[in-house]
Amino acid sequence: MAYFLLDLLALGCINAIMVVGLNLQYGYAGVLNFTYYTFVALGAYVAAVTTMGAPPTNFGVEHYALQWALPWPVGLLLAGTAAAVAGLLMLLLTIRRLRSDYLAIVTVSVGFIVWNFITNYIPLFDGSNGIFGIPYILNGAGVDEPTYTAEILAIAAMILAGCLWVSWRIFRSPFGRVLRAVREDEIVAESFGKDTRAAKIWVFVIGSFMAGVAGGLLAFYLTAWSPAAFLPEESFILFAALVIGGSGNYWGALVGAFVIIELLSEISRYLPSFGHASVIGAGRAILIGVVLILILQFRPEGMLPERRLRWYRARALPTGPAQGAPPAGTGALTAAPLDPSMGAGGMPATGEYRSAGARDRLRAIFRRDLG
Fold first, then answer.
1. pTM of this prediction?
2. Distance CA 171, CA 32 (A)
3. Nearest alpha carbon to residue 41 among 284, 166, 224
4. How far apart are CA 219 and CA 226, in angstroms?
5. CA 345 to chain centre
6. How many C-beta neighbours within 10 Å does residue 139 have?
7. How many Cβ atoms from other residues are within 10 Å of residue 369's Cβ?
């Protein structure tokens, strides 16, 4: 039972690092990255090939690049750096000509390209066979599994605490307010003189770095990695965890990672099998999908809504004439009362601040944080 709990907590912390990084990209800046798990896979591969050394003959692995034998902290840092560089290159090549919805399609295309390239180019990471026999990063091969799991849990918990601190600092910083402005209305944010492209690039790179570090930790823990480990379903589960937990809230990302990925996904792995082996996996995906639909229907803000969403909803919008408005009959232009539930252009407001218009939303965002 103790080993079972250690395993759940270790995987939960690793998955939480992924969801926190995804929250930076989607929850803060509104950048849809449907291939987020590809950056996790890149980090896993880089961490493995930079720390394993020569291929272990007892596992039959014959082909993979680099074959370095660096210390595991260096390999973990290189894993995050490789994922961040990959994210930077992808955005530099696409962000100037594509808006967010088309950029999301590009991420899907990049994911398919990377997956097929890794699967078919054997000298890189041994193709579809993957990399096996990744050595334990602490105490060598003589340590038992519960002890090694506890060690991975301690490392993952410390890294998760650092990622949460970075996310908290970004949220409360002027850079974080720019990101939320980009998410609400990028065009209006540019009209305020904000460099929206640079903001999206930076937050994408930071989120990709967290994905790579989480992938490296996961490879060290599982001691193996292959193309079967980063299918499109994995990115869907991360998005489901973020949306259910609360997009835009780092605590919501943490809760979503543990509640959705662990309670609904990992625990089902230990249930008695019945029927075909694929029944449990399919049922797990169906259950997550049903929970996601119910959350979107009855609580679209998630289990822990973004903190400023609650704060701005608590403020009553004025319904009378604005202070300093010209008296009626003077011929001056006056604004008709606006529905707080409507956004700019008469479309329903779906973002953080359901204020009268885009300019009011951006003024609210750039206002100094009040708590």
1. 0.82
2. 18
3. 224
4. 10
5. 30
6. 11
7. 13
Please say whether the beta carbons of 163 and 53 come within 8 A. Answer: no
Q: What is the pLDDT of residues 24-66, one digit of tens each?
A: 999 999 999 999 999 999 999 999 999 998 875 655 556 888 8
Fill in the amino acid letter for 190: E
- Maximum CA extent, the chain: 90
Residue 277 neighbours by CB under 8 Å, 6+ apart: none
- φ, ψ of residue 342 to 5 degrees: the values are -105, 145
Which region among 88-92, 234-238, 330-334 has the lowest average model confidence (pLDDT)? Answer: 330-334
What are the CA-CA distances from residue 109 to residues 38, 55, 68, 85, 247 (Å)?
11, 31, 30, 18, 24
Cα angle: 302, vertex 248, 88; to 5 degrees: 135
Backbone φ, ψ for residue 68 (5° rounding): -80, 160
Computed on alpha carbons and rounded to an integer, the radius of gyration of the chain in Å comes to 23
H/E stretch holding 131 reads strand 131-132
Q: Write the DSSP symbol of residue 28.
A: I
Residue 50 near residue 75, CB atoms below 8 Å:
yes
Tell me the C-alpha distance between 69 and 67, whole Å.
7
β-strands 131-132, 224-225: how paired?
antiparallel
* 369 closest CA partner among 306, 301, 323, 299: 306
90, 106 in Cβ contact below 8 A?
yes
Q: Please, which residues have CB within 8 angstroms of residue 35's CB and are 6 or more apart in sequence? A: 107, 108, 110, 111, 114, 232, 235
Contact 135, 52 (CB under 8 A): yes
- Cα–Cα distances (Å) from 170 to 27, 29, 283, in that order, read 12, 11, 37
Is 90 exceeded by the pLDDT of residue 71? Answer: yes
Angle at 256 between CA 275 and CA 267, to 5 degrees: 30
Half-sphere exposure (CA, 13 Å, Cβ side) for 107? 24
β-bridge mates for residue 103, sequence order: none
Please give the structure tokens belonging to residue 158: 């410390």
The two three-digit tokens of residue 370, written as one number = 């009040």
pLDDT 10s digits, 100-132: 788 899 999 999 999 999 999 999 999 999 998
| Angle, CA 268 vertex, CA 264 and CA 270 arms, to 5° | 145
